[in-house]
Amino acid sequence: MAMSxxxxxxxxxxxxLHPPVLEFPSPHSSVPFPPSPKLGCRIxxxxxxxxxxxxxxxxxxxxxxxxxxxxxxxxADVLKEELLDAIKPLDRGxxxxxxxQEVVDQIARELEAMNKIKExxxxxxxxxxWELLYTTSxxxxxxxxxxxxxPNGKIFQAINADTLRAQNIETWPFFNQATANxxxxxxxxxAVKFDFFKIAGLIxxxxxxxxxxxxxxxxxxxxxxxSRGNQGNLFILKxxxxxxxxPL
Length: 248
Hints:
This protein has helices at about 1-15, 50-65, 75-85, 100-110, 140; strands at about 130-135, 155-160, 165-170, 175-185, 190-200, 205-220, 225-230, 235-240. It is α+β, with helices and mostly antiparallel strands. It folds into 2 domains: about 1-65, no CATH class; about 75-240, Beta Barrel (Lipocalin). Helix 3 packs antiparallel against helix 4 (about 100-110). It is globular, with a radius of gyration of 37 Å. The protein starts with a helix and ends in a 7-residue tail after the last strand. Residues about 1-40, about 45-55 and about 55-70 have low confidence and may be disordered. Pfam families: PAP_fibrillin. Its main location: plastid. It is found in: Plastid. It comes from Trapa natans.
């Protein structure tokens, strides 16, 4: 009998030292996990499990709520600053890589989407002399030429919305000029017909209709103008003299 009692005590001690192993259901089974008492934890009425779950749900709802708000859009002044910073080191576009051209074009498109002047050809903001800051036009940049044969000085374009006249002005070293008539095609696109050229600032040449193209004004304010040509070229200009008028 003493052996039987000792055996019973040993069995009870073994159960105390080795709690039952948890059995997890198969991933394909619908049987839920065993209730938490089998984990050896004691759950009382004061255990804050439900409160923690509720807090977790509230936190997730809050995160989802704020994530639903779109990022704040940039205003036009911020975009103009970004655009000017992007084109500053590019020598009017002559030194731009394809990747840099893409960056400039993307910022320009964002700014164009915020254009408030829907009929720029009727706006007085268009009048005056504009300085070319950037373009993708090879006919202006002349990147196929040696650098000393390219336009190195400032390039201007003047527009009179009242008389529908335009003027391109190159400075050092060539001092070429060209004037053109503008024929409105809609409220923001014109056909450009050059009729007068001055070579080296000295030799005037009248040649009506010798140069033709189209120009669409896609962004306009009192400081900056963005235009796009019919061949896909981008032009970015800043206002330098609003009082200037193109000679008739």
